[in-house]
From TrEMBL:
Subcellular location, record wording: Cell outer membrane
Protein name, entry field: TonB-dependent receptor
PROSITE patterns registered for this protein in UniProt: TONB_DEPENDENT_REC_3
Topological type in the membrane: Multi-pass membrane protein
Pfam families assigned to the protein according to its UniProt record, in alphabetical order: CarbopepD_reg_2, Plug, TonB_dep_Rec_b-barrel
């Protein structure tokens, strides 16, 4: 009989030992989470139903405000109903909602500076009416008016969450994976404390697509310790789409999509400079980022942006010891320029990412007994000191991305789009070797990727919109000679062509959308093994489709549902890996007979929103045939470079299901609270067992209090939060060590905003793992060798002018 989460927590267990029974079969986490979420949802359902009964005028007008020329979302547009003298302001994604309207006919005006006013008659008869308003830019010289462009609004009926504003400000200095842990249902799969990649509903790596300013990020993302090659500082908004989005984006989006969007370019004379300076006590991290955004005063429609960052950190410290060789360095830059007119828009974009990351020395053991001993010991034997030095084993990664995008309005209802992207990724992994070989990488890969997107958007009246498109991807991967090691994966050429069509219908309280896609892929691989040439020529093809909808149940409740098929061909590493993966400190064995994964995912969402409360519940089920996973064999591989665990790629039918819950409540104008939680189950239905590396149940909750003056309450805020993570009881039949116990972490944050004339100065102070709790995260591949990071105090300074 297992012990509960709280039995493993100190001093947390001591505080609650008189209130909770520590020995019980069911995790206390699940009980608490179930009771809290049931009470919260029950209360909100009751409150919503009572309000709906009490109100005789309970209709809703909701919708989206977009730019006519490019479908970009318009933030801060004013929507006004003349007859009732009520209105709303559109949010970051262009959405607005006006509640408590009586049945009847209304005159709606939409206003946004520098654009022609829209005045339209709307008839409200059902419980909700949805409208999309597209605003046309005024052909007047408005001086310093800023008109945004070059970022298309995300229009989907599946679950979607965005990070922007204060949440983005608080996440500065974190990797992309760590930043996204603020989203319910998103966790990380990490290798140590400096390498992490996002996980959505249990999916990661080649099942999650990341878009850097609209271009699919193509590196060596198949590796468990290959973090996304992207600088979060280039973004002012990060969006997570949790559904199967293969119709929109292609096979690698079967688990979800992450959109990393930089600020939209201005089209009139304007300028903004943003400087971030950060420091952290754990690892002695220092981080500097600067960006400049400008618009031309001479050429109307011309805008540009430049950005760069540099980051340096030393050895990470667990509560009781330093982790040897866990420092990192990083420097990045990006730039873009664009021109937009009434009919034509064009944008050029470039980003460069470069990092060097140390790998925990104790993960590379010298012999079998050392490997067994360190796993049993649970912590490094090396008595390390703090250092910024990065030695072997380590990674060096550089990534170039260039993009050229344009659109042309054939007429007010049809828009033609073209986008080309080029990427060059170079990954080097260094092992501990003797003599001259120690300066040479053990893995040296170059990946060239060309992508072409050609699509046609249409908007017919107010009800119909859609897109028809063509995607082409061409890749060439090469092993750079001179490593002295048989390559882990072969050289290969990949070609993928896809065509798709999507259509959306909007009427009253209902939104419906559907899509269909066909993909064809070829992979030609070759390498020498023991002087023998091995070649493979593979073909994959498949259809995918989806249908989804949104229905406004009442002024406060909305229901969304999206069901879609998806597929993913096996990646080259899953097919052909045959050797030591140095960065992961493991031997990986592929299977060239693998077939494509195919899935059907159903995502349902229920949203409640009132003046004080916002709650979103997402439930999903995902059945996958021929699911590919990396499984520990229990065997070890001994070489001159050390002793390593052996993993193999296997296939089995899988069933993933779970739910995410997020909500916030404003008790007063100053005091508020939030709750985020997720539960996921993943069964190997072939063997009636569980898969490795599936996130355990977790809940994040916190309270905030604003200290600012009335009228500017958000200028001074303190937040106390608690993260509860249960032990993973659903383990595979074999693992190198039992899953670690659950844990609780307390964090505290303070944000101060100071207005200096027209400029803004922000000061942030955060303490993560306040009580310096020692814990191990199940989703960390190095949990066998070391604990996670201890207390970390961060100071964040931001100046905007």
């Amino acid at each position: 009989m297992g012990t509960s989460l709280f039995c493993h927590l100190s001093p947390f267990a001591t505080l609650f030992q008189n209130f909770w029974e520590c020995q019980r079969e069911q995790s206390i986490f699940a009980t608490v989470f179930h009771k809290v979420s049931s009470f919260l949802l029950g209360f909100l359902f009751f409150a919503g139903s009572q309000l709906a009964i009490a109100q005789t005028c309970d209709l809703v007008l909701r919708g989206k405000i977009l730019h006519l020329e490019n479908d970009d979302a318009i933030e801060a547009a004013y929507v006004w109903i003349l007859e009732t003298r009520t209105g709303a302001v559109s949010d970051q994604n262009g959405n607005f909602v006006i509640r408590e309207l009586c049945p009847g006919t209304y005159t709606v005006t939409v206003q946004y500076l520098g654009h022609k006013e829209i005045r339209q008659t709307v008839n409200l008869s059902g419980n909700s009416t949805a409208q999309t308003f597209r605003m046309e830019e005024e052909s007047l010289d408005l001086g310093s008016v800023e008109v945004h462009g070059h970022r298309e609004a995300v229009q989907t009926t599946t679950a979607i969450t965005s990070l922007y504003g204060d949440e983005m400000l608080q996440s500065r200095g974190e990797s992309l994976g760590e930043s996204l842990k603020r989203v319910a249902g998103v966790t990380t799969f990490s290798t140590g404390n400096t390498i992490s990649k996002p996980v959505i509903h249990g999916m990661h790596s080649n099942r999650i697509m990341i878009l850097n300013n609209g271009i699919r990020l193509e590196g060596q993302q198949w590796g468990a310790e290959h973090a996304p090659e992207i600088d979060p500082f280039l973004a002012d908004e990060i969006t997570v789409i949790k559904g199967a989005e293969t119709v929109r984006f292609g096979p690698e989006a079967m688990g979800g999509v992450i959109l990393v969007n930089p600020p939209a370019l201005p089209t009139n004379k304007a300028s903004q400079t943003d400087i971030h300076l950060l420091g952290a006590t754990n690892g002695g991290m220092g981080n500097l980022s600067a960006s400049y955004l400008g618009g031309s005063g001479k050429i109307k429609g011309l805008g540009y942006r430049v950005q760069g960052s540099i980051k340096r950190a030393g050895n990470v410290k667990s509560p009781d010891y330093y982790q040897a060789n866990t420092g990192m360095s990083e420097y990045n830059l990006s730039g873009s320029a664009g021109y937009s007119s009434e009919k034509l828009g064009i944008e050029a974009y470039y980003s460069y990412f470069n990092t060097e990351i140390g790998i925990l020395k104790d993960a590379h053991t010298g012999n079998l007994s050392d490997l067994i001993d360190i796993i049993e010991n649970g912590r490094p034997f090396t008595d390390a000191e703090f250092s910024y030095a990065i030695e072997n084993p380590k990674q060096k990664v550089s990534h170039h991305l260039a993009k050229l995008k344009s659109h042309y309005h054939l007429n007010p209802n049809w828009k033609l789009n073209f986008q080309y992207g080029f990427q060059l990724n170079n990954r080097q992994e260094f092992d501990k070797r003797r003599g001259e070989l120690n300066t040479k990488p053990s893995l040296d890969l170059e990946l060239f990727t060309n992508t072409v997107d050609f699509f046609l958007d249409h908007n017919l009246k107010q009800n119909w919109s859609g897109s028809f498109g063509l995607n082409i991807i061409q890749q060439a991967n090469s092993n750079v000679p001179g490593t002295g090691v048989t390559p882990l994966i072969p050289n290969y050429d990949l070609f993928n062509g896809g065509i798709y069509a999507m259509e959306k219908y909007l009427k009253g309280p209902l939104e419906l959308e559907a899509g269909l896609r066909y993909d064809f892929r070829t992979v030609d691989a070759a390498r020498y093994v023991d002087e023998e040439l091995q070649q493979s020529n593979l073909e994959y093809k498949n259809f995918s489709a989806f249908v989804g909808g949104l229905y406004q149940l009442s002024p406060y409740f909305a229901f969304t549902s999206n069901i879609g098929t998806a597929w993913r061909p096996p990646n080259v590493n899953e097919l052909f890996s045959q050797g030591l993966h140095h960065g992961a400190a493991a031997v990986e064995i592929g299977d060239p007979t693998m077939v494509s994964e195919k899935s059907i995912k159903w995502v349902n969402g229920l949203e409640y929103e009132s003046d004080r409360a916002v709650v979103e519940l997402t439930a999903y089920a995902n059945r996958i045939s021929n699911y590919i996973y990396l499984n520990p064999t229990g065997e070890t591989y001994v070489s001159l470079r050390g002793t390593f665990n052996v993993y193999e790629y296997l296939q089995a039918d899988a069933f993933f299901y779970g739910f995410d819950l997020s909500g916030s409540y404003n008790f007063t104008d100053r005091a508020s609270a939030y709750l985020k939680g997720s539960i996921i189950r993943a069964k190997n239905t072939d063997e009636d067992s569980y898969f490795p590396f599936i996130p355990s149940d977790r809940m994040d909750w916190g309270v905030s209090y604003s200290l600012g003056k009335k009228g500017n309450l958000d200028s001074d805020k303190i937040t106390i939060s608690n993260v509860l993570v249960a032990s993973q009881k659903r383990e595979p039949d074999f693992d190198l060590a039992p899953a670690p116990p659950g844990y609780a972490l307390f964090n505290i944050g303070y944000l101060k905003k100071i207005q200096l004339a027209k400029n803004q100065f922000n000061i942030g102070l955060q303490v993560n793992n306040l009580f310096n709790t020692e814990y191990k995260e199940y989703m960390n591949r190095f949990r066998y060798f070391t604990a996670d990071m201890g207390r970390n105090i961060l100071l964040k300074l931001n100046y905007q002018f």
